[in-house]
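Hi W., the S-adenosylmethionine complex you wanted:
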Amino acid sequence: MDFDKVGTYAAEHTTADSELVKELIAASKEDLEHTDMLSGRQVGQLLTMLIKISGAKRVLEVGTFTGYSALKMAEALPKDGQLFTCEYNKRYEDIARTFFEKSDEGSKISLLMGKALKTIPTINGSFDFVFLDADKINYPKYYDMIIPRLKEGGVMVIDNVLWDGEALQPEGEKAEAIDQLNKQITADELVEQVMLTVRDGVTIVRKK
Ligand SMILES: C[S@@+](CC[C@H](N)C(=O)[O-])C[C@H]1O[C@@H](n2cnc3c(N)ncnc32)[C@H](O)[C@@H]1O
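Structure:
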């Protein structure tokens, strides 16, 4: 099976992004040399579905990039929903803020600039839903920091858990950190989880 073709076919048969989200993707591609950090339609729509199905209201995202997944999640949240998203790169911030301001759902989003390990503790309260998609090397630290603040029944989605297959036989620091987190989740009796082979690997964790 040709996995690139399968991925394209799956994306084509997944609900399309809103016009504004499509505009954000186009603007990101125009302004930046590389946009492969965008999580893409399958992951974006998975987040949308999980937020709607779970009725989540308070969301934390670690890793905004240009705002694709944040905007997808804000569009899925109810009117009184809140989304906190963490980023440290000014160039990405400018694009994200432009589109958050353009969106009718943008008022739900608070963008926190700075290293996420420092900014997450400044947010009060607990979370119904978390999307972890920033620096892979700190994945285990983010998990330890966030899981106590995830409500019972709350969901954490973690992207890139396969790291292009390198997590299976990790050699570099990033692959090792991802594999460490994958093992940690598997051993964690406080949660149940499923690792999906969607795109670069996505784990859905539910706190019992
Ligand atoms: C994979 S991208 C996020 C993609 C985004 N979730 C989306 O779907 O479009 C990861 C982002 O995390 C940011 N990042 C990396 N390390 C960070 C840190 N320590 N604190 C805050 N942001 C960080 C990067 O600048 C990058 O924009």
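The pocket of S-adenosylmethionine is lined by residues 37-39, 63-65, 68-69, 86-89, 92, 115-116, 133-135 (CB under 6 Å).

W.
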